[in-house]
């Protein structure tokens, strides 16, 4: 039976080439956009090198101070705040302080090279899971003694040394000479918490350590012993923040700073209201957008399907006359439609792969390494099936209600 | 056996009520070859559709093998059509996208318990019976009218139905091809004992069958054995 349905489906597709093209284009293009978006989302928020254990990681990026009359100011944390309030937290397994990345210039053979530099402690390397191509991270000793050593990424190595080994060699960045101790795989810029071209010991910025105040240029990265500890860490952090708020000299000052997953921190920036990060709202908006985006091609497919099936009233009549029930007819058209959408899905995958390849190689997103992983593939497949069902059920149901006699009368010869 | 009791069929639109069949009482015993004649619009096809369980009467009772089917649901009617009935239409109604063989196999797709190889074997036997063994891989558009109708007959008989309902099976064919089709139907009736009800406009064809029922304005006006029906002629 299935073979018979598929034979017919293929024939119908080939018979109406233009309709088929429109249908397939609609499906594959929509899927392609959704899959590239999913891949970007996954790439940004999912577990990826070097933030592999996302379920155990929290980041603190922001400190917002709200003094009376709604005057707000926000920026990353001060080293002082980290040292005084985050380092002593008891629940985390480990905490790290690291700077935002700064764009600095470097010159190689009179050629200007813009590099992003980040200052980190030793814990940064223990918490995150970089792929080292050469050497290692700098040691606690290096950090304590403010050694001028650097870990560089693959791209920087290429710029400075070509294919040669980098370990033990020197680079000059922003007029400071560093000895290369390690080379890591490129980290995509979307991973703002860990991304840089060059990582150097945080102690090289020790002049900033004693600056008072809550706001500065530092992030905190927190690792939990186990995923279940995350709420406890958040609670401990909240309690600490209350205490800090209470100690503020200016009464009425409100402080907002939260240890968030990366997704939460993004959602909080755009949608959060005080304590709630708004991840639910973010998911809601994304799902809504995806739904709207899929709605148009689906309606279009429903229309095309109706006219495609209408041409086949005679066939429906014949099938009914020879023993097909309404539900068998619905089944047939749904199978045909799923076949069509899976075909569109397949094209969509190929298109997605091409677009992702293009993004990875074009430098639109620095060091992007987008791929069609299994998760994205599964989501895509699910989308295909949803497409097939939504756009097939209504026309199939409509046609299955057709009276056999009417269907036979309306059919072509 | 098909029994129709007090069948009435009324088509109702907003302003007009059309009586297509009025007080029709008929019994078609097993093994009979019945032809139904009458002018266009007299209700012949409606009657055939009601017998074929494709349409419901407004009033009256349809019985198949003594069982009234008025309370049957879509699924039960479909099963009955699949197992007991076969249809041959004036305009063949083959599925153009399927090959001859696939077209013939169609009824068995809806019958559980028949394996693919058995279905294929039965389809080839049915095509052999109508003399089209050499055309199995062709598509309907590659066949002549007579050949298409023979495929349609093969499709009707593959499920070995007790009753074949043929609506003007020779109506679109020239006299030679019409004769061929008629002979196939007569053979089916005579050799396999299949009950056949055929609507026709052709007196000649009608007189080859065993019983001729005439309709006029939705009513049965005569019902008689034909004098010329003779097994030896076939």
UniProtKB/TrEMBL annotation, chain A:
Keywords: Cell membrane, Membrane, Transmembrane, Transmembrane helix
Subcellular location: Cell membrane
Membrane topology: Multi-pass membrane protein
Domain MacB-like periplasmic core: 20-236
Keyword Zinc-finger tagged: no
Pfam family, one: FtsX
Transmembrane regions listed in the UniProt entry: 21-41, 281-302, 338-360, 372-394
Domain ABC3 transporter permease C-terminal: 289-402
Claim: Protease is one of the keywords in the record: no
Protein name per Swiss-Prot or TrEMBL: ABC transporter permease
UniProtKB/TrEMBL annotation, chain B:
Entry-linked SMART domains: AAA
Keyword set, alphabetical order: ATP-binding, Nucleotide-binding, Translocase, Transport
Domain ABC transporter: 2-234
TM region(s), chain numbering: none
SUPFAM superfamilies referenced in this protein's UniProt entry, alphabetically: P-loop containing nucleoside triphosphate hydrolases
Cytoplasm as UniProt keyword: no
One term of GO molecular function: ATP binding
Pfam family, one: ABC_tran
Family statement: Belongs to the ABC transporter superfamily.
Protein name per the record: ABC transporter ATP-binding protein
């Amino acid at each position: 039976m299935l073979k018979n349905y598929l034979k017919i489906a293929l024939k119908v597709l080939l018979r109406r080439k233009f309709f088929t093209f429109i249908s397939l284009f609609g499906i594959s293009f929509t899927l392609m956009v959704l899959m590239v978006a999913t891949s970007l989302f996954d790439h940004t928020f999912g577990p990826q090198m070097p933030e592999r254990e996302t379920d155990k990681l929290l980041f603190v990026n922001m400190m917002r101070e709200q003094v009376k009359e709604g005057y707000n100011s926000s920026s990353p944390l001060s080293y002082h705040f980290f040292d005084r309030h985050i380092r002593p937290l008891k629940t985390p397994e480990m905490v790290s302080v690291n700077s935002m990345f700064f764009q600095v210039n470097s010159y190689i053979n009179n050629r200007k090279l813009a590099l992003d530099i980040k200052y980190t402690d030793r814990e940064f390397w223990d918490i995150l899971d970089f792929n080292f191509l050469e050497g290692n991270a700098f040691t606690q000793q290096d950090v304590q003694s403010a050694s001028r050593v650097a870990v560089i990424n693959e791209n920087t190595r290429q710029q400075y040394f070509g294919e040669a080994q980098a370990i033990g060699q020197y680079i000059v960045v922003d007029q400071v000479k560093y000895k290369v101790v390690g080379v890591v795989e490129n980290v995509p810029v979307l991973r703002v918490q860990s991304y840089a071209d060059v990582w150097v010991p945080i102690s090289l910025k020790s002049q900033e350590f004693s600056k008072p105040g809550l706001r500065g240029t530092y992030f905190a990265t927190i690792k939990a012993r186990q995923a279940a500890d995350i709420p406890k860490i958040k609670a401990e952090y909240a309690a600490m923040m209350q205490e800090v708020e209470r100690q503020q000299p200016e009464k009425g000052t409100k402080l907002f700073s939260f240890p968030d997953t990366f997704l939460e921190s993004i959602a909080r920036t755009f949608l959060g209201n005080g304590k709630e990060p708004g991840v639910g709202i973010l998911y809601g908006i994304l799902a809504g957008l995806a739904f709207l985006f899929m709605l148009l091609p689906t309606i279009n497919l429903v229309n095309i399907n109706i006219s495609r099936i209408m041409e086949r009233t005679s066939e429906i009549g014949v099938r009914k006359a020879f023993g097909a029930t309404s539900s068998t007819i619905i089944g047939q058209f749904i199978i045909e439609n799923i076949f069509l959408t899976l075909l569109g899905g397949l094209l969509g995958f190929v298109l997605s792969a091409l677009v992702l390849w293009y993004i990875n190689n074009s430098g639109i997103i620095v060091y992007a390494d987008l791929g069609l992983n299994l998760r994205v593939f599964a989501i895509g497949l699910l989308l295909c099936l949803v497409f097939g069902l939504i756009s097939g059920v209504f026309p199939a149901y409509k046609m299955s209600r057709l009276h056999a006699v009417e269907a036979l009368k309306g059919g072509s010869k | 056996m098909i029994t129709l009791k007090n069948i009435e069929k009324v088509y109702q639109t907003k302003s007009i009520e059309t009586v297509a069949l009025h007080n029709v009482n008929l019994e078609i015993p097993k093994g009979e070859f019945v032809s139904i004649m009458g002018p266009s619009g007299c209700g012949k096809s409606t009657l055939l559709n009601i017998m074929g369980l494709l349409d419901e009467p407004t009033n009256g009772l349809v019985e198949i093998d003594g069982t009234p089917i008025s309370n049957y649901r879509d699924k039960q009617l479909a099963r009955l059509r699949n197992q007991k009935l076969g249809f041959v239409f004036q305009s063949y109604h083959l599925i153009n996208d399927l090959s001859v063989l696939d077209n013939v196999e169609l009824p068995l797709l809806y019958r559980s318990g028949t394996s693919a190889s058995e279905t294929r074997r039965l389809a080839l036997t049915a095509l052999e019976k109508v003399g089209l063994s050499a055309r199995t891989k062709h598509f309907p558009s590659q066949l002549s009218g007579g050949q298409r109708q023979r495929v349609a007959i093969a499709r009707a008989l593959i499920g070995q139905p007790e009753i074949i309902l043929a609506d003007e099976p020779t109506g679109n064919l020239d006299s030679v091809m019409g004769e061929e089709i008629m002979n196939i139907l007569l053979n089916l009736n005579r050799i396999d004992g299949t009950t056949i009800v055929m609507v026709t406009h052709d007196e000649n064809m009608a007189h080859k069958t065993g019983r001729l029922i005439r309709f006029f304005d939705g009513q049965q006006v005569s019902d008689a054995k034909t004098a010329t029906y003779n097994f030896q002629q076939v």
